[in-house]
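Teaching note: in complex prediction, the entire set of molecules is handled at once rather than each chain in isolation. The prompt given to students was simply: 'Predict the structure of this complex.' The entities are:
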Amino acid sequence: MKIEHLVEQIYRKNSFLCIGLDTDLERIPNHLLNEESPIFSFNKAIIDATQHLCVAYKPNIAFYEAYGSIGWEALRRTIEYLNEFYPEIFTIADAKRGDIGNTSYRYAKAFFEDMDFDSITVAPYMGRDSVEPFLSFEDKHTILLALTSNEGAFDFQTKKIGERTLYEKVLETSISYKNSQNLMYVVGATKASYLAEIREIIPDSFLLVPGVGAQGGSLQEVCKYGMTENVGLLVNSSRGIIYASKDHDFAIAAAKKAKELQDTMAKELKKKN
Amino acid sequence: MKIEHLVEQIYRKNSFLCIGLDTDLERIPNHLLNEESPIFSFNKAIIDATQHLCVAYKPNIAFYEAYGSIGWEALRRTIEYLNEFYPEIFTIADAKRGDIGNTSYRYAKAFFEDMDFDSITVAPYMGRDSVEPFLSFEDKHTILLALTSNEGAFDFQTKKIGERTLYEKVLETSISYKNSQNLMYVVGATKASYLAEIREIIPDSFLLVPGVGAQGGSLQEVCKYGMTENVGLLVNSSRGIIYASKDHDFAIAAAKKAKELQDTMAKELKKKN
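The expected output is the structure of the full assembly:
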């Protein structure tokens, strides 16, 4: 997907919400467990109920891998369903991959070609030749971890390398990678106050922002410091939306939670214009 | 697997060779493509022909993911075969995972419980709470990326944070993680000269050393600077062994290549004692 189509969708829906599909058999409604593919049935119901309120879905690949080939098949059906029925929606494989060149290229082919995701999250630790294989796919996006939403982010990411922190170094260095126009970055909502400085290094790039909701980040703060001319934000919520209810009304309850976030987003977009 | 069983195996076989199962349908012999599961058939033949010469196998998960649920099923059959017929062999899921706590725990369950691998490779960028979920499994080992064998390692890993480089900081910090006795580290053979300093920080930990062979690292250098009282090394070769021939003799050719490395390893072990 081209960035302009994502931006166009954001303005049309008045939303920059990404819904995380962290689908867990222990947390989905019991009545779905008798379905042929409970994971896919859950995802389909959530997607159908919320697709008008969000612009992106982000399956967390760990949750699918945990169920082996069954989980993998459910992931494939989910992405195929999205691509067939809601092709305007931006899809993110939250996989946090990254390896030597020939291996990264395998991951890129799996997620971009075989499954046709629009984007994938990638860890930067192994540097240029672990990231560039992902960047070489046209109209596909590589979402590099910069400053993550968890406590462990302070172990290395915020440590100083000369004048810069490691995550700033990641931002700066990645700009020089081949096809860096295909880069986006993960910046946690729990660290929204860092966004002003981040925007000095990458003024226009899209940011995927986890940590609103279950992890406690503030949507208003994220918008205040992170929003750009083109919005430049995809704010993710996973558990807070998809597990709003464990009953037959789970999809309606999820839509209600998504609507609350979308309402706030609409206000922020109005404020901007 | 307990470390002492790995060490015992190393001395019994006079080998610290790990064989990387980077199984690629485009590189395996054509006659296998008619088999029900070409990937598993290839792996089984390689394993049967080389298991007396090595102490570990390391499937590179990207290569399996690239084939979706078929690849995933082949991976499962491979690990089940290893665990049933060669339970003394150390198994490594080369997955380079790492995410927020609840997600890392999912990956750990998938690879340690569901598939019963002995170990997994993990990326350190997200810090403590992304690594500790892996460390909490008894007799399972977390192989943290420290200094990787690729060119991109110089982007961030060798950059200075105060007196230390980032990879040294990763080594130092990880020692304070809960259950850090379950840690091993990836250190590329292409950077063997760094091993002396690495051994000052982690004198006894096992190192998984990729980059001998196709990537050009020297086995003798690795042993000179990296070997410990308990050997402390697993030296990996993937493509150099498994793709030694594309003909009907592929397994024999692989064993021949493995034997060459094992011969050198036997000499190094003799030198040590």
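Point out the following to students. The mean pLDDT of chain A is 95. Chain A touches chain B through 54 residues (CB under 8 Å).
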